[in-house]
Design goal:
Blueprint: H1 8-18, H2 27-34, E1 38-39, E2 52-53, H3 58-73, H4 79-89, H5 94-115, H6 124-146
Length: 153
């Protein structure tokens, strides 16, 4: 959850869909699995000039694009937001810019998971806020299950 745009829901979805990160030898394989890479519609002598997006794990693709949307809406400056803005300025339609940013995010996720280190440009305040929110949700769920007086800190 140290990566911009990735909250608890997206983090759990990524972990569930990716599983063991070592099954992806490089970041390109993860991006391809997630379906956030361009697909060539070539046939015989015909070479397509459009950038169709490849189908992949739709749940993972949804989680990555959701994270991109959150990173773009964020008030703070982050690498995903900057990349998305640059793509839109180049004239790329918003939806394709989101998918391109999702590929960049997939590359970052691959690096973070394979290196087992926190994201380099981590916003510590935001990460702390995300973790506090997770704790509040878990404690609320525990109170529902065990009763108001049974939860111990």
């Amino acid at each position: 959850m140290t990566v911009p745009g990735i909250g608890p829901f997206v983090a759990v979805t990524i972990k569930a869909r990716v599983g063991d990160i070592t099954r992806f030898p490089d970041k390109k394989k993860l991006a391809s699995y997630a379906g956030v890479v361009p697909k060539a519609g070539n046939s015989g002598d015909y070479v397509s000039s459009h950038n169709q997006v490849k189908k992949g794990d739709m749940n993972l693709k949804y989680a990555l694009t959701l994270a991109v949307n959150e990173a773009v809406k964020s008030k703070s400056k982050n690498v995903i937001k900057s990349f998305y803005t640059k793509q839109v300025r180049k004239g790329k339609p918003a939806q394709l810019a989101i998918v391109a940013a999702a590929r960049k995010l997939a590359n970052i996720v691959w690096k973070v998971l394979t290196s087992r280190q926190a994201y380099v440009d981590e916003d510590k305040r935001l990460t702390s806020k995300k973790m506090h929110h997770v704790e509040l949700v878990i404690n609320a769920k525990l109170r529902k299950v065990t009763g108001p007086g049974d939860v111990q800190a």
